[in-house]
Every structure is written in C-alpha cells, then in structure tokens.
Design a protein that fits this description.
The strands form two sheets. Strands 4-3-8-7-5-6 form a six-stranded parallel β-sheet, sandwiched between helices. A two-stranded antiparallel ribbon has the order 1-2. The protein has one domain. With 262 residues, the chain is an alpha/beta fold. It has 14 helices and eight strands. It binds uridine-5'-diphosphate. The site of uridine-5'-diphosphate has 13 residues, from helix 10.
Length: 262
Amino acid sequence: MSTLSATNRARQQVLGYPVDIVDELTALEVFEAAWHQGKGLQVITLNAEMVVAAQQDQELDRIVRHAHLIIPDGAGVVWALRLSGQAIDRVPGIDLAQAALKRASTAGRKVTLIGGRPEVLSALERLLPKVYPGLLIAGINHGYFSPSEEESMVERLAEGKPDLVLVALGVPKQEYFIDRWHTFFPRAIMMGVGGSFDIWSGASTRAPAIMQKFHLEWLYRLMKEPWRWRRMGSALPKFSFQVIQDFLRKPSKKSFKNSRNK
Ligand code: UDP
C-alpha cells in the first residue's frame, strides 16, 4: 500500500469497491517503484462482472479490497466513475500487461507466465522474446494442473525469483491463485490477465480497434463467445441497476461538480 501512497494517487469507489484513478503510465510508475523497492504487488483489473461476483463471494470481496493496485479495466467501472464526476479512461488489463512486459524486457526484470492451454504457452515462449527483445522468462506453466500438483509447481516457479507474474486462469480462479501463493513471490508484481495469453498467441482475437475505442470490447466477447451470456447477462444489468440507484441516492450531484471546479 505504501508504494501507492508514495506515488500520490487518488482512490475512488464503485459500489463500495476501491478503484485507483490511474492511467497506464501511472500504473507502470507504480510497478517501477515496486520493483525498485523490492516490494510485491497484487494487481486487480476491475470490471462490472468482477464487482458483482465479489458481492456474492466473500473471498473475492476480501481479495479485491486488499489488492495494492485496482485498475479501472472494465467499461462499466469507468462509466460508474464518470457518472460520479470522475474523469477517467479505461486501462484494459491486457494493454497494461503488454506494457509491463515491455518495461520488464528493457529493465532486465524476469517474467513468469502461469495459465492457458499448454500449446498456447509453448507458442508464447517462442513468441514473446521476439516481440520484446531481451525479455527474461524465469518460468512458465500451463493452467491445467491439478490441485495436488499446485504447490510443487509454485515452489519450482518461485525458484526463478520473477519480478512479474502474469496469471491467466480466468476470474476468479486467477485471483484466488494469486492470493494463495503471493508470499512465494515476495518481490513480484502479480496480475490476473484472463484470456490475454490466448490473444497474444493468436489462439483468439481481440475486438477491433473501433470497438475498443468505444468501450465495446465486452460486446465483442459476447458475440464471439455466446456462452458468456449467462454470466454477463445477469451481472451487467445487476451492476448498472445498482450504479444508477447509488447515483440517485447521492445528495446534490450538482454542488459536488461545482465544488470540484473551484
Ligand atoms: N484457464 C486455465 N486453466 C483453467 C481454466 C482456464 O489456464 O483451469 C485459462 C484459459 O485457457 C484461458 C483463460 O484461463 O486462457 C481464461 O480466459 P477468459 O477469457 O475466460 O478469462 P476471464 O473472462 O474470466 O477474464
């Protein structure tokens, strides 16, 4: 937490969950500061689905609240913040993770990748050092290990002493994983990256730039992966309804805005 406060950053709330008011560059500065100080960081990339999941899951609730850095990853989270008068843009987790890989490669920081299908990981092991020359991969493990294999896998990966650990197991599995094992990686920035490995390897595609620009990446995912309807279809209305309720309950939005402009 001290790393964050040292860089003097505002923290807001969305439905009671903390969100750091950062852009990509500021988030990278926090990473650099943590590396410099040899401190570990747990990073959450917050979106509407995760907020609703955390409301129904005490463990995830605790993990989100205790993270060192909570990134405004989702369009819904950004919309909620803007509604309360906070000027902010999305920081997609996949972009931040790419920027962190780039920084790591130029700063001689070691990276470990956990999660994804075995063939996706093999492709990344070949590809990433080409995209980020100088990238040091300290360890790599696919995400289809059994619970009984987990501890020995983590012990082996910890021996590589990585500075950045990207975990692609999907929400909330990756958040639980980071929470369970972060003490084995005391100097690492640990971040859940969902389906990013699939996209980087070319196994799946990201939304076109125009959809990204208009914060419609979630819609693209829904169209490509209709099975998400069940999860997103209930979470997104729940989230929007609560945000609007919250907004209407707040006294005197106008005077809040005016006081900010003074
Ligand atoms: N995954 C994994 N192990 C598992 C379940 C999932 O490695 O037991 C990987 C999966 O291969 C995919 C990623 O986790 O690469 C999940 O991506 P998704 O886009 O579904 O993540 P979310 O939408 O939850 O962020």
